[in-house]
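If I may wish for something, please walk me through the protein I am sending here so I can picture the backbone:
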Amino acid sequence: MRNRGLMLATATIVLVAGGAAELSTSAGAAVAGCRVTYTISSQWQGGFGANVAITNLGDPVNGWTLTWTFATSQSVTQAWNATVTQNGAAVSAVNVGYNGVLGTGASTSFGFNGAWSGSNPVPATFRLNNVVCTGTAGPTMSASPTRSASPSASSTPGNPGTPGTKTVRVFWLKPTNVAFDQRYPDGIATVMREAQRYYRQELGRTFALNATVVETVNGEHDTSWYINTNCDPNGDRYWCVVANMQAELRRRFGLANPDSRWLVVGEISAEDPGKSGGGASPGWVLLSGHDADGGAGLNGPMNRWYGGMVHELGHGFGLPDSTSTDGTPMSASFYSYPNTHFSQAQKNAILAGPYGSFLS
């Protein structure tokens, strides 16, 4: 079915790291405490993007340094909103001029791109100005306190080489001449999570996403190749871009069409304006450039892309288009999202369909 203008969409996984700490204190001690949320926003073979949010739970600070230690061969390659340095596995992030003051309860964040090999676990312990971030506030002394810490992490990101089965597996393919932009995997993930929420609302159950919601794929060709290769210049060019993407994803990741392991969503940042498009069939959703732009927040109101993804996933789960504008998301009523709902017949068909067992 031809895409009516849908977007694709990656979120993110939020990983909160903390540790239990015992502090030796005395009367009149200052109050210190912090919470750190470490988010793997996207991950691809050998690289990843992360966002680190800091909340100061103690007395106000004027200038901060956040430190942690990577567990494996991870490294920071680029950072923004903080000055990040690394010595071996030890990493230090220092505020920049405009975000150094944190009042009690105030938050700030910074991001970075990194490299990994083998695995990409979440750092177990973070320290803000040498205080272990446990998610609570407590007294501390200006001198170094005696501290015994038992770090833990609530979860670790999945390896993109071994995603869970019976999940919706999402790819963003970036051609060689397209610069990496964090808004795309983040935005695609947001759309997928909204579609996930909607399916639970409608069906009482929903699909699972992988720990790394969107796998960023560095394409083998530039945008012109995806637009023009295997495409009759005088014929219908609608499917050329997404068909080339699908062929590459199938070859590089060993995917079938359909694939019993995953319902696959593929998004590519390439499009021949007015000619390229996308759509879906059981087991696959294929979307081109304007959909990726929509997910990244660059192409109009988000409800249009949320509704479009719900519509295309409906095809992925085996539903046909409605024959009229009937108030369901399988018709043009998806443009009215969230004021659109599956019919009982559509719900039954999804649950009895080829991917109904993916829903829980």
Residues 1-29, 140-160 have pLDDT under 50 and may be disordered. The radius of gyration is 23 Å.
